[in-house]
Amino acid sequence: MAAGRATNAAEPGAAQDAGHAVEHVALTLADQLPMLLILVPLVAAPLIVLLGSRRLAWPLAYGAATASFVMAVFLLMRVIGGEVISYHIGGWAPPLGIEYRVDSANAFVLFLVTGIATVVLPYARTSVAAEVDGQHGTLFYAMFLLCFTGLLGVVITGDAFNVFVFLEISSLSTYVLIAAGAVRDRRALTAAYDYLIMGTIGATFFVIGLGLLYMATGTLNMADIAERIADQTGNRTVRAAFAFIVVGVGLKAAIYPLHLWLPNAYTYAPSAVTAFLAATATKVAIYVLMRFMFSVFQPLYLVEVKTLEFIIIPLALLAMFAASVIAIFQTDLKRLLAYSSLAQIGYMLLGIGFLSETGLTAAIAHLFNHGITKAALFMGVGALVLRFGNSYCDGVAGAGRTMPWTSAAMVIGGLSLIGVPGTAGFISKWVLVQGALEAGWWPVAMLIVLSSLLAVVYVWRMIETLYLQPAPERAAAGEAPLSMLVPMWLMALACIWFGLNTELTLGASLSAAKGFMAGSPGLILAGH
Amino acid sequence: MSQDKHEDTDAFPWLGRRLLWLDNRRNVNRIVYALYGLCAALFLADFFYHKHVYLGVEELPGFYAVYGFVMCAMLVICAKAMRVILMRREDYYAPRDVEAEEYPEDQLDRAEHDA
Amino acid sequence: MPEMMPTALLFFLAAAILPVLPQYLRALLLLAVPVLAGIILWNIPEGMLAQVGFMGLELEFMRIDSLSRIFALIFCLAAFLGNLYAWHVRDRVQQVAGLIYSGSAIGAVLAGDLITLFLFWEGTAIASVFLIWARRTEGAYHTGLRYLIIQIGSGVILLAGAVLYHAETGNFVFERMQLGSPATWLIFLSFGIKCAFPLLHNWLQDAYPAATVTGTVILSAFTTKLAVYALARGFAGTEILIYIGAAMTLFPIFYAVIENDLRRVLAYSLNNQLGFMVVGVGIGTELALNGTAAHAFAHILYKALLFMSVGAVLFRTGTAKGSELGGLYKTMPLTMVFCVVGAASISAFPLFSGFISKSLILSASVKEHYYIVWAVLLFASAGVFHHSGIKIPYFAFFAHDSGKRPKEAPPHMLLAMAITAFFCVYIGVNPEPLYALLPYEVKYEPYTTTHVVTQLQLLFFSALAFTVLMRTGIYPPELKSVNLDFDWTYRKAGPAILRYLRAVAGASGAYLGSVLSGWAIGIFHRFQHSTGPEGRLAQSWPTGAMVLWIAILLGVTLVVSFLS
User: Fold this and answer.
1) Which of A103, A434, C106, C497 sits at a 20 to 30 Å CA gap from C361?
2) Same domain assignment for residues B2 and B44
3) The pLDDT of residue A431
4) How many domains does chain A have?
């Protein structure tokens, strides 16, 4: 299975030359990275179940995640300049064979997903032990790895149907992971069930869309589809496919009115799962949305069908305000953060909606920055849950005194959520505002700032809860253990680091945005 | 005007004891008379030197004196009139909006606060 | 090289290590940092000394020229004196906040572009609010929130202005601008909020009396003078500032006369003094700008001295209300003496610092033929003597004996006051060193016979008016009260209107809601009907709603795709 073929192709500018690029059989380990990245966690997951040892489960999962992270870093380093890696599974050339493609857009998302997994897993050890039934610990890590694999697969693959397969892998394991929260709160089962129903509907829509595309083109390779639908944009089948795919993926991404599964799922899932999912799952869905919108269908097609103006942008604005307002009135910190996630997804959609290089840069950068921000925040809440047994505002009031480190990390995360200068959140919002101004949409720029003020309110509520409210009498809980504090602070410091040093985030985002805006030439495959 | 005639003034700081004559109403009156005299002298001073000024109005003898007196009197009277409209109870905005510290801060003995 | 490091960073680094140090090292560090920063700023050459690349922008962290240097130096001095005064404070929150606050203020003064300015601008806002909250009373908490909202608002407006400015000119350089475009108006408004322009001023009188004893001393030095600096840098010679400034000198003195809380009286007189500086900026000639810089320098010192002395009273007696105080000179004579020195300085008595700085602005206004403004400023000078020069020492230390016999202020407070008082007198007696620091060459001689005599006439006849009114009983007594100011609009009227609207909206909303829910139930029932007996899924609200949404969204997307 590992015998594959990798080719390097230069990105858009040299697209025509790519066809003549010399193919070579992959011999070195480095050429197999795209495959290994998926394979390592995929193999580790059943291994955990087979070994069945509770002591081995965590080290295996952690090893797999770390290995994937290292590989993702290597991949990102290779493609950040604009290069594209095309990997043919089993040596079968696309469009017949399955192709994995890595460009700066998905390498960046891979970097985020693997990075978050690597940080969350050490954190999960204590948190999961406290929140999930002991005997399910082994299975939990297996499921975690499967979900992880699914997300990576969705991102890395260049094959449309493969996206669906991996999406299902990640979704099914996600349902299980959410249900694992039932030990703490039985409502996790309902939440998981709801998500199961809705997720399945979303996936069905997605696969219907793919079916329609297959009808119209007879192929499932993204680049191939892109090439074949280029001259039939007026085709009703293609247009229906587009609508189905946008709505289906939109559900996974929790675009505002399709978000109803998310608050419950995030609230009742085990804290470590929430931290992981919030930072990765919706982000991956946003990535898929972008990939299909810009690479499979073309930017020009988007101009033509006006979906962005009439659907995506209004929904994005709606999310920014409605979700923020709802967040303000929540009494459960997890739920508050979940609604704020919905609002932040609005920003990303808005960036996509600008249909410009700056807008996409903002969307991708925000995808990353919000990922690390939310990871820090949900890990903070998880630590509160560990010590206080719940995440209600009155339940954890005054935690700033008993858990100073956790609270301080949450404050940093909160500042980044608002977009205070010096934090990661500021960078992407800044670029987003620039995108709005570039497009000449002054009112939208104002709305971005206004909705940030709503964020100030709910973050303030959080800070008030932690610091300014008197602690209940019985509260004597101590600080969270180091194994949770270190990952939490890693993320909090990352919020500041990426707020000051934007070389990586904006560099990768800009390069990715260029790839997207180039349309299908950005997807062109080598040796085809 | 000390309420307590038998107050132990020896406990006061040195400078405080030197200034205790201010408590005597007659001494206060003396200061006021001294002020009157000083003001008169300053007013008259205007006639004894050459003013280097820019404005015609400044050359009037005692312009600054009259301006200062009249404007300040007006200021106080206007401000007093403003009270009629603007003054409210201390708890007008909120019950504990304007509050004195319960104790002088240095006697509170709060470890985290002030010494 | 040390001069390449932004000075603010020095403060931030110190703030970072401060919490882990023992108390005495903390207090020493608090003194050492401003001294070190002052020495550095004194010695480095002029120029743009520290550029940092950030998101493709070149941020200028160290713009040293004669205007920024004098403000940065006085900020260092003020930080040193404030920290010495706060030697006894053990509260780490106040110590860290004070360091970050003063560091941010210095950073903002040295900022060479609007983005850097914005960063430090917000830094001062966020750090300073902790000096208010540190009092840990309910009133202080709410005041702090109001203060924070206004200050952050100022920063956000500045950022919006900066972005528009960039769209207009293609750069973020912070240099002199012309009022006219939305960008410059926004920036102007942002400066105006921090500078406490009339109607934007209430945060000042609200917050300063609510902060801790030591916090107010620190607060009084930085925020508003930073705004004055920013105006002097960006809007020198903007005529509207002259009238804004004149109004600023005028209206606070009326409030100051009837205000009971002595710290609030000082806040009003601070506002009045800012007016002088703003007039100086508005006139914009070399003489006027020199006057603004010199007055800011002198003002920071004597205002700090006054806040220190009233703070010492508050520290020892637990109140700063005129109605509760009196007769304190017996047991706090040194504090009284320092208070009188501060009062003499703010009133511009000859031989005190105000005399040699305020007169620069007054003569600039005459030279540029703003006679009405000159008359207003003259009146304000008399007025400031009236309420700050006489009222503060009189009601705190003399007046009727309150029977309070507090101890003299602690030694470190006395030392801080003594040093500040020394500076006030030294500058007044020997203005040359200060004049040498000013942005432009000074050709002005404050000590002429005319100036001294006329100033003495003005002041002593004001004192005469006070005495006469006091003795005739016309002078308004100190009463426990608050006075309505413009903040009434957002503390009383605004909430009341909102409550009213909510009541109206609630009533109509309830009606609308009942109609809508009637429809919704109808539709819902029909929907249930159509899905027949296995309508179980529809019963679970999120799933049902979600499916509905998916259907709607798919429909809309299809329609949009097909129609376009």
Assistant:
1) C106
2) yes
3) 92
4) 1
How near does any CA of chain C get to the CA of A518, in Å?
Answer: 22
Q: Is the ipTM of this complex over 0.90?
A: no
Question: Considering only CB atoms, which chain A residues are within 8 Å of C546?
Answer: 194, 198, 201, 251, 258, 260-261
In a domain, A7, yes or no: no
How many A/C residue pairs have CB atoms within 8 Å? 88
Average of per-residue pLDDT values in chain C? 88
How far is Cα of residue C468 from the mean position of the Cα atoms in its chain?
A: 35
Picking from A175, A195, A237, A260 by the largest number of C CB atoms within 10 A of its own CB, the best residue to mutate is A260
**Residue C318 Rama label (left phi>0; alpha psi -120 to 50; beta):** left
Q: Tokens 């964020």 appear where?
A: A455
Q: Let me know if residue A321 belongs to a domain.
A: yes
Interatomic CA distance for residues C240 and C495, integer angstroms: 32
Calpha distance A258→A245 (Å, rounded):
14
Residues B39 and B72 in one domain: no
- B37 lies in a domain? yes
Answer whether A360's CB lies under 8 Å from A510's CB.
no
Q: Residue A109: inside a domain, yes or no?
A: no
DSSP A354-409: TTSHHHHHHHHHHHHHHHHHHHHHHHHHHHHHHHHS--BTTTSTTHHHH-HHHHHH
In a domain, A353, yes or no: yes
Instruction: Assess if residue B103 is contained within a domain.
Output: no
Same domain, B26 and B39: yes
* Residue C506 pLDDT > 70: no
Tokens found for residue A154: 């969705």
Give the residue carrying structure tokens 């705190």: C396
Closest CA to C469 of B25, B31, B32: B32
Query: Are the CB atoms for C355 and C343 separated by under 8 Å?
Result: no
Confidence (pTM) = 0.72
Q: How far apart are CA C335 and CA C85, in angstroms?
A: 13
**Tally of domains in chain B:** 2
Residues B54 and B85 occupy one common structural domain? yes
pLDDT, tens digit only, all 528 positions of chain A: 344 445 444 444 333 344 444 444 455 777 888 999 999 999 999 999 898 887 888 999 999 999 999 999 999 988 887 788 888 888 888 778 888 989 889 899 999 999 999 999 999 988 888 888 766 778 899 999 999 999 999 999 989 999 999 999 999 999 999 998 888 888 888 889 889 988 999 999 999 999 999 998 888 888 888 888 887 777 888 888 999 999 999 999 999 888 888 888 999 999 999 999 999 999 999 999 999 999 888 888 888 888 888 889 999 999 998 888 888 888 889 999 999 999 999 999 999 999 999 999 999 999 999 999 999 999 999 999 888 888 888 888 888 888 889 999 999 999 999 988 889 999 999 999 989 988 888 889 889 988 988 898 899 889 888 887 777 666 566 888 999 999 999 999 999 999 988 888 998 999 899 888 887 665 554 333
From C477, which residue of chain B is nearest by alpha-carbon distance? B80
Domain-embedded: residue B92: yes
**Inter-chain touch A311–C163, beta carbons under 8 Å:** no
Answer yes or no: is B110 within a domain. Answer: no
Which residues have CB under 8 Å from A318's CB, separation 6+?
Answer: A256, A257, A346
Query: Which domain range does residue A441 map to?
Result: 317-515
pLDDT of residue C521: 66
Say yes or no: B41 and B1 in one domain: yes
- B60 and B38 together in one domain: no
Q: Estimate to the nearest angstrom the gap between the alpha carbon of C499 and the chain centroid.
A: 31
CA triplet C38, C89, C135: central angle to 5 degrees? 110
Does residue C409 contact residue C417 with C-beta atoms inside 8 Å? yes
Report which residue type is found at A480.
Answer: A
Question: Domain of B3?
Answer: 1-49
Tokens 């009942």 sit on residue: C514
Specify whether B40 is located in the same domain as B59. no
H/E segment holding residue C51: strand C51-54
